[in-house]
Design goal:
The complex is a heterodimer.
Chain A: H1 2-43, H2 49-63, E1 68-70, E2 75-77, E3 87-99, E4 109-121
Antiparallel strand pairs in A: 1-3, 2-3, 3-4
Chain B: H1 5-12, H2 15-59, H3 64-68, H4 80-90, E1 95-102, E2 106-113, E3 126-133
């Protein structure tokens, strides 16, 4: 019985580590999506694609715990005030974070997750 | 009849392994459900966000004639408001408009974000809705 326990306990520990790993992967994915959402919302408050990209970068970096790379060019559809037509901005980005503490399972390294978000630009924000 | 200690040990051999196998299967099931549950929650949250943006886009598409007339109604001509909402949703992979109710004053949008689960038979689609009202530019 002691031998069985000695063999099986490490297996259970590895399974526990897998559970923690899975949860961390999910949280990283969620953060990447939240970074994209924050970026798109910040971008939608700007009046030009250049300002929008800059605002999106800042907002996304505040959420992601590592480097953020926004896919260029961002999609920035300007609103049309005359016809009361809203615009939109689409942000697609990658969020890279360091992933450590799982050496028995995987080597410590960086993981990258992606997020896509779209926000509406109201027509009164015309340039 | 008495059983010697050696015979008793032989009887119990393997019982811990069976116990661990059962526990391991249960543990894997819980981990899978937690993982897929969190993905489903993520899809629900995404669906809410997308529905909110789509509804806002549709509700902000006003009829210019109504605005010049002093009121603000959502433009129902040529499905312009719906096209604006679709433009938002089409930009998001795996998202689609499931329901779109529109009147001159309000828009109600239901969005579904599709997800594929590695657990057979488990549905992790997220469905979210949002209602938006026409903005009055004269206010």
């Amino acid at each position: 019985m002691t031998t069985e326990l000695a063999i099986l306990m490490p297996v259970m520990l590895v399974i526990s580590l897998v559970a923690v790993f899975v949860v961390n992967v999910e949280r990283h994915g969620t953060r990447a999506q939240q970074a994209a959402d924050a970026g798109a919302r910040a971008a939608s408050l700007q009046r030009s694609p250049q300002e929008a990209r800059q605002a999106a970068q800042q907002a996304a970096e505040a959420v992601c715990r590592g480097p953020v790379v926004i896919d260029d060019p961002i999609v920035f559809v300007e609103p049309v005030a005359d016809t009361y037509t809203p615009g939109s901005v689409r942000i697609s980005l990658s969020c890279t974070e360091s992933f450590t503490g799982f050496e028995p399972l995987v080597q410590s390294s960086n993981r990258t997750e992606w997020g896509v978000a779209v926000a509406t630009i109201e027509y009164w924000r015309t340039p | 009849m008495t059983i010697s200690q050696a015979q008793q040990t032989d009887c119990e051999r393997g019982s811990i392994t069976v116990f661990f196998v059962v526990i391991a299967i249960a543990f894997f099931a819980v981990v899978s459900l937690v993982s897929e549950g969190s993905r489903r929650l993520g899809n629900l949250s995404r669906a809410e966000d997308i529905a909110s943006e789509a509804a806002r886009a549709a509700a902000a598409t006003l009829d210019p004639n109504s605005v010049s007339g002093g009121s603000s109604f959502i433009d129902l001509v040529d499905d312009r408001a719906r096209k604006q909402a679709e433009m938002i949703v089409d930009d998001i992979p795996d998202a689609e408009i499931e329901r779109f109710d529109i009147s001159p004053q309000r828009v109600f949008v239901v969005v579904r974000v599709r997800g594929t689960s590695f657990v057979p038979g488990l549905n992790i689609d997220g469905v979210g809705s949002h209602e938006a009202f026409a903005f009055d530019p004269t206010s």
